[in-house]
Amino acid sequence: MSVAGDAARALGLFTVVRLLGVVALAAAAWATGRHPLTLLSRSWDSLWYLGIAAHGYGLTEVYGPGTAHSDLAFFPLYPALVRVATEAGPWSAGVAGLVVSWLAASVAACGLYALGARLYGRATATALVLLWGLLPHSIVLSMAYTEPVLTAFAAWSLYAVLARHWLWAGALAALAGLSRPNGFAVAAAVLAAAAWEARGVWRAGGKVTHRLWTGAALAPTGWAGYVLWVGHREGDLPGGYFEVQRLWGSRFDLGRGSLRFVRHLLLHGDRLVFPMTMVIVAAAMVLFALLIADRAPLPLVVHSGVLLLVALGGSGFFECKPRFLLPAFPLLLPLARALTRTARARPWHATVVVCALAGLSFCYGAYLLVVARTPL
């Protein structure tokens, strides 16, 4: 089969597993008298994004002293895309949000395939796409959320870095930075790769091209531009955005808040979502160690490492940490390589593993939105 054919097959597998996940959610939603499209398009942060798309920034909800939720906490690219989609098609804003997310998830899956095929071959690339679509929190990829958009720009930016297309890498990293607060992980990967490339060129006595410098300079502009714009609007250029986040209960405290919450879980127990979060984050740490042990390319390690650091070191919204790790797809490369080897040696074993992951993903996704109803 051709490269294009293999890529289409991988995208087809991703589409099928995500559709099955939505079907499982729909069955659970209808059984409890709820509408699946409402759950997918108008849950938690989706409402904030749709509000920004419809009315722009300016909404703040005050819940008490020291607690004020401002829509300035949400980065602008996704609501801008939703606004364009709403005006371009005969659908509601909620459906437009899903269209943007689903298209972005497909673009991201293609990017994962391209990157995986470049590094380890087509079979591993297909396994990478499949595993990403079967993560326990992969229901988020079918919601009106920003993770698919960030992952799409991240995947293709990292691919451009490996191909040394520095201008594309920088421009896509800038767009990733406009997608989410943790989108600066892509810029960090581009900057680290550019610095390493420049070091090699200088040691060889060569001259660094303007494309590399320009791409590196472009990479952080999206994230930094929005943070500074919020700071200017709030009257505190360097710190305004971070104050907005603090009032949401989110801040980077080197993990102290997370450790206190983990201690609470271990001593007192809690609903399934929180122990599951602990397991997923612990698995991500192990996978990061395996990624380093496999000597993965520097930009992939930096990208995943920064996302993992943000998830571990940030306080507030403990249950959201697995969602924050969805764009850290390079963490799945060791598993994808292992699954590929297993599929070649023992096909039925690989089939059982994939079916088990699918069952966990579909059931847990339905549980999150229908039963737990915990903010994601």
Automatic annotation (TrEMBL):
The cross-references to InterPro entries, in alphabetical order and at most eight, read: PIG-V/Gpi18 (IPR007315)
Q: Which UniProt keywords apply?
A: Endoplasmic reticulum, Glycosyltransferase, GPI-anchor biosynthesis, Membrane, Transferase, Transmembrane, Transmembrane helix
Q: Name one GO cellular component term.
A: membrane
Q: In which pathway does it act?
A: Glycolipid biosynthesis; glycosylphosphatidylinositol-anchor biosynthesis
Q: Topology with regard to the membrane?
A: Multi-pass membrane protein
Q: Quick check: keyword Transferase in the entry?
A: yes
The entry's protein name is Glycosyltransferase RgtA/B/C/D-like domain-containing protein
A single Gene Ontology MF term assigned here is: GPI mannosyltransferase activity
UniProt organism field: Streptomyces griseoviridis
Annotated transmembrane regions: 12-31, 91-115, 127-146, 166-196, 208-229, 272-293, 300-318, 352-372
Q: Where in the cell is it found?
A: Endoplasmic reticulum membrane
Query: Tell me, which GO biological process terms does this entry list?
Result: GPI anchor biosynthetic process
Judging by the UniProt lineage, the source's domain of life is Bacteria
